[in-house]
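## retry 2 of 3
previous attempt timed out at serialization; input unchanged, resubmitting
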Amino acid sequence: MFKATVIVKRRPKILDPQGKAVEQGAKLLGFNNVKQTRIGKYIEFFVETDDLKAAEKEVKEYSEKLLSNPIMEDFEFTLVEVNSPKTEVKIARD
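## retry succeeded, writing output
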């Protein structure tokens, strides 16, 4: 089994209205050095296979067909082999 992490971002030449809105909010809060804010999506899921090539193919197709808009967005992904989804430990931070 593999844990997939996909990051979807707007292409650099595509306007990011959400990023612009966040940047304007940052300026109102006094963060005057923040520039060129871009907002993306971070997606995690598990692929139930022991074959790395099959997992790569499935994640790529899933990302192209459902998780991203190929006209406006690019994506990148990583795969990490795991024993089961329950083996992951999360630590809360204050």
